[in-house]
Design brief:
Number of helices: 1
Shape: globular
Number of strands: 4
Strand content: 35-45%
Order of helices and strands: HEEEE
Helix content: 10-25%
Radius of gyration: 12 Å
Length: 67
């Protein structure tokens, strides 16, 4: 994922969910980025280029022990 895309996603997550959300590049991956709340890992944002329309999918796993 390009740095300017990560900046835009970071601003979107901060504006939409919480100013403390951070979007970071993933090591050795260029199709996704990691999402954190402070230092707590929340999930991954993936690029979806299907049919020529670019969109982003946020995937977050919730463990039973966290409920």
């Amino acid at each position: 994922m390009k740095p300017e895309e990560i900046k835009k996603l970071d601003a979107y997550f901060k504006r939409t969910f919480n100013p403390e959300v951070i979007v970071k590049a993933r090591p050795r991956k260029n199709d996704s980025a990691e999402v954190y709340l402070g230092e707590e890992f929340l999930g991954v944002v993936y690029i979806d280029d299907e049919d020529g329309d670019r969109s982003y999918n946020f995937s977050m796993a919730i463990l039973d022990v966290d409920l």
